[in-house]
# Entry
Amino acid sequence: MPLSLDQRSLQAPWRIVDELIEQPSWGGRYIIDLKGLGSSEQWSGKKVGQSYELSRKAKLFNPADDSKVTLADLIASDPAAVLGAPVLTKFGADISLLIKLTQAKGNSFQVHLPEGKTLGHWEPKPEAWFYLAPGLFTFGIKLDKSFTDFSNALHKIDDCMRRLSDEVKGGQLSLDEAKQKTQELIASVDPYQYVNVVVAEADQIIDLTAGGIHHSWEEDNERFPDGNLVYEVQVDVPDERCSMRGFDKGKFLPDGSLRPTHVADYLATIEQDAEHNELSRHISKPQLLSEQNGAKVESLFRTPYFNLDRISIEAGAEYRDDASGGFHHLFIHAGNAQLGDTKLAQGQSYLIPAATGIYNIAATEKAAIFKTYLPV
# Structure
């Protein structure tokens, strides 16, 4: 039966149900603490790597009665009122938007397919990052290095790991011995010599929406003990259809098996020209849009797929906006605020339906808010 909602519910913020992803190996406590869950028994002694602040499968609290409603059912109840007529016309009712808060300490060398190109089952996944604190990542390839040598190094590591994995599973080699042999090989071929290793600054923007650009998060526990703290916005595509791993950094699963790698496809997808691998083309800082009456608005992402602004509001000040052209997603990164009768709490996400139209946010304390919306 279709969900039936009165107009008042479609003119109020819908808080998105927390969806935290536990990651014992590379997560941390940042997300737990930001959301005020540090004393929760559920998260005692645990590490979280990501929280999904919006996804196709998201659930939301109905502002009328606090019942939980799926995003799909909410949209189906009145697509134009929820999403906005311009969004429906340009993007349709299936909003493939994924917004994540991430704490990560290293992942594989990856690449995503560029728009307009085809390769097997792979699909593009435009995404962009906003660094909340300093971190470490790799991005793009070095053009003064031999791509053939890079290719040979990755194939050599991958072939060796597959062989060692078979030996561990067959009982000929211990897992520790396989790890040691792998690390010795990685040190000897040094795949990092072929890619740009970048120290991220707080408030740095990384735009990966073009696709075809090598990237990875890195780990340096001495300089960056919290890893990479990143706010991500991306098109919602499952990893198995978009993330090509070229190098998984010598990681074995506990039984000696490996995560899937796709070295040939990864190498075939990387853009090798100077323009695509020019860091200044993809890395930037916030741009001021407006500042008045205690409220500052900065542009973070401007892409064909999604936009992201940061709104900073001084304590006691108000910020005015208009969602009538398309829904807004608000994530409260710092502080607390009030929107009508709804308290906007730090660490929480809210969907502002298009039917809300003009709305005012009053900061009860100094607040920082990320606003994601679609370019219409």
Observations:
- The two ends are 31 Å apart (CA to CA).
